[in-house]
Design brief:
Layout (H helix, E strand, L loop, with lengths): L1 H24 L5 H22 L12 H24 L2 H7 L2 H14 L5 H18 L7 H27 L5 H25 L7 H5 L8 H24 L5 H6 L4 H13 L5 H35 L1
Helix pairs in contact: 1-10, 1-12, 2-3, 2-8, 2-10, 3-7, 3-8, 4-12, 5-6, 5-7, 6-13, 8-10
Length: 313
């Protein structure tokens, strides 16, 4: 279980660095273009990782193509929602809204995967929810931009919760390489299709203004490097995230999404001069304590099960 938690924490760091680059790139590039580069270079990262393990392309074999499509569509919705929220919200605030996902994973995992919702897991979810409320209280009564950011973040968080449960389900029979590759491939195709649709959208019709703002923008050398790095970080984070579900249950892994708050607050301060409010810091402390308590409880429960199993042998 500890290996799975360590991989999840590594994934949160990679995604936090990716989010900082996305926020910096958002004023200059449409969201579909950022999603496209993120997906394209994530596939390159995955190919290199699999090749280094001698698993390219054999690891891409699958017996569950429709399962991958469902996971990919849910993950794409989560990605779009989160990327849009980064354009409107401070980095730490956008990260805080993603904490809705693990709150949804516990009941979803119970229904879809048959995982037990123990009192410890339920307590961690409740504590995490209270922490999120503390962090997000500053957005009550916000302006149009804040409302747009919050709406996108919440929609993305709901989609991500479904994707997380589907990852756990697929990991029972599918390789990490297949799960990550097909997600990146579907998202790349979807984002490219939206870019082409925006380019072909006729002038003077409904949604012309929206389409014009989503047309491809040719990046310079520095911007291209940033967009490529977004994809590389996303690929690394996705590999860590997907692999983590092989070593711990989805309900446990979900609790450690909250570590992202630490990375987001630090990067927001260092790169964008965004000072986390007392509410954000207090909420982060609550959710981190909940995650740590859950890990300690799960380790103790696993130890007791091992002892009981040894006695009955």
């Amino acid at each position: 279980m500890l290996k799975g938690v360590a991989m999840k924490i590594g994934a949160t760091l990679a995604f936090a660095l990716m989010a900082a680059l996305i926020k910096a790139s958002s004023p200059d590039f449409p969201v579909s273009e950022i999603v496209f580069f993120r997906s394209l270079f994530a596939m390159a990262t995955l190919a290199l990782w699999l090749a280094s393990r001698g698993e390219w392309p054999s690891a891409l074999k699958t017996t569950r193509p429709f399962g991958h499509v469902g996971r990919s569509l849910a993950g794409s919705g989560g990605m779009y929602g989160y990327f849009v929220s980064l354009a409107f919200l401070p980095l730490a605030d956008a990260a805080a809204f993603t904490f809705v996902s693990p709150l949804l994973v516990v009941p979803l995992a119970s229904v879809a995967l048959g995982e037990a919702v123990t009192p410890a897991r339920a307590g961690a979810v409740v504590a995490g929810f209270l922490g999120v409320l503390v962090m997000l209280s500053g957005h009550l009564g916000g302006g149009v931009g804040s409302v747009a950011g919050v709406s996108a973040a919440l929609a993305g968080a709901a989609s991500t919760a479904f994707a997380m449960v589907q990852i756990s389900r697929l990991s029972r029979s599918e390789s990490t390489g297949a799960i990550v590759f097909y997600f990146s491939a579907v998202t790349a195709v979807l984002s490219l299709a939206l870019l082409l649709l925006a380019a072909a959208w006729p002038e003077g019709t409904a949604l012309t203004a929206l389409a014009s703002g989503q047309r491809f923008v040719a990046p310079g050398a520095l911007s291209f490097t940033a967009l490529a790095t977004i994809g590389l970080l996303g690929g690394c984070g996705q590999i860590f995230l997907t692999h983590s579900y092989r070593f711990a249950e989805a309900s446990v892994i979900a609790a450690f999404d909250y570590v992202a708050m630490i990375w987001a607050a630090a990067l927001g301060w260092l790169l964008f001069a965004e000072i986390p409010t007392a509410g954000v810091l207090a909420g982060a402390a609550i959710v981190m304590t909940a995650g740590g308590a859950l890990l300690a409880w799960e380790r103790r429960a696993a130890g007791l099960r091992d002892v009981a199993g040894g006695r009955s042998a």
